[in-house]
Amino acid sequence: MNEDYLHYLWKFQKLNPSLLQTTEGENIVVKYVGIHNQNAGPDFLESKLIIGNTEWYGSVEIHVKASDWNKHKHQYDKAYNNVILHIVYENDTVIKNSNGELIPTIELKTIIDKAEYKKYLYFIQNGLKITCQRQIKEINSFTINSWIERLSITRLERKTARIETTLKQYKGDWSQTLLHYLLRYFGMKVNGEAMEVLAIKTPFIILQKEHNRLFSLEALLFGQAGFLNTNEIADTYFINLRKEYLFLKQKYGLSSMNLVNWKFSKLRPPNFPTIRIAQIAQLLHANHHLFSFIRDFATIEDYQELFQVSTSKYWETHYIFGKEVEKTKNTVGKMLIQNIIINVISPISFAYGKSINDERYCNYATQLMAKLPAENNSIVNLWKDLGIKPLSALQSQGVIELYTNYCSSKKCLNCRVGIQILK
């Protein structure tokens, strides 16, 4: 038995009302099923029931087995003391709350429609990447589009929670937080984590102090990244950069990363971490008040101009230290700029609006994505093949959220489309 299925049965009252009885034989009348809680705590909040001759108002908890209550340590948790009904598939033990009080229980094993459950199992076990891809054309576009719109906001809210954690780490410093996520996305999937470490080890305030001198910024960033930890490269630029870093390292009391954190294999040379770091140095040199772009509601065009940086001259003829190549202009591409606006600027704007209770920044975040074209990736293409074609980055973020947090984990009973099909 699947616990999500039990949630579905209760939430949409797919149970025969005449069969609702506690294990003690008391009739149950459902006045209000409650609010489905997706966070910590009981599964349904503010439920209203009549059990026997008594009206109850409180929470409902659902488990496959009654013993799961004890397995999850609810018997010690005061947050579960207001549970007025325990719904289980199999009542294999007696359970109590932290006050030692018995909790009314209903066992569903004998009253569930087995044929409906088999249909549900067949549906979610069909082996398709998107479980409902054969039936989704039967669902009206309003249901699909409104759900995708809601999920695009859900995705922003999830990113906001992560940003809030990072903000606490930086003691409320929005500029350092912005730098953290900028570096993360400049590193992309392969070097994203290493870039985050670089952000943590390199305080934004120090970079601001040195922003007037591009060479000093390069020395700080390459030095902190661990690229200057050797004296075996006989290259004038490298030697001078290393001297500058050793001076700055002592001046600011810094410690560098280990070079093994960085990956070059399977990357095109323009995406090498050395090139990305050089571009970041150029970005910070040209614009050291990056957060002001968010605070002042900069336009898409402003961001495109801001991030379309190249590198210093050395990196026009090098991809790594000490090895010269044919001259090229390593400018940040349009695709990366779009990804930064979607995954950094918009979520941080949304988080900032939430933190200062200013809806303008939350609206600004969604408007930025609504003005950008839809992303082009394997997940978005899956939906396009089914006739669902996002027209903006806001919509493509919604279908990505739908696939990654519902379809891929078969959470069809938490999805508006899945529920509509099953109903």
Uncertain regions spanning at least 5 consecutive residues? none
Portion in beta strands: 5-15%
Pairing-aware structural class of the strands and helices? alpha/beta
What order do the SSEs take from the amino end to the carboxyl end, as H and E? HEEEEHEEHHHHHHHHHHEEHHHHH
Could you tell me the radius of gyration in angstroms?
28 Å
Largest sheet: 6 strands, mixed
Q: How many helices does DSSP assign?
A: 17
Number of E-type strands: 8
Judging from the principal axes of the Cα atoms, what is the shape?
elongated
Average pLDDT number: 94
Oligomer: single chain
- Give the terminus-to-terminus CA distance: 19 Å
Helical coverage, percent range = 40-55%
What distinguishing features does this structure have?
423 residues; 48% helix; 6-stranded mixed sheet; alpha/beta; 8 strands; two-stranded antiparallel sheet
Write a brief structural summary.
With 423 residues, the chain is of the alpha/beta class. The protein is 48% helix and 10% strand.
Secondary structure blueprint with pairings:
Elements: H1 3-11, E1 28-32, E2 35-36, E3 44-51, E4 54-65, H2 68-71, E5 83-90, E6 105-107, H3 114-124, H4 141-169, H5 174-186, H6 188-201, H7 204-209, H8 214-224, H9 236-252, H10 273-286, H11 291-295, H12 300-307, E7 318-320, E8 323-324, H13 334-355, H14 359-370, H15 378-385, H16 393-407, H17 416-422
Parallel strand pairs: 4-5, 5-6
Antiparallel strand pairs: 1-3, 2-3, 3-4, 7-8
Helix pairs in contact: 4-13, 4-16, 5-6, 5-13, 8-9, 8-10, 12-13, 13-14
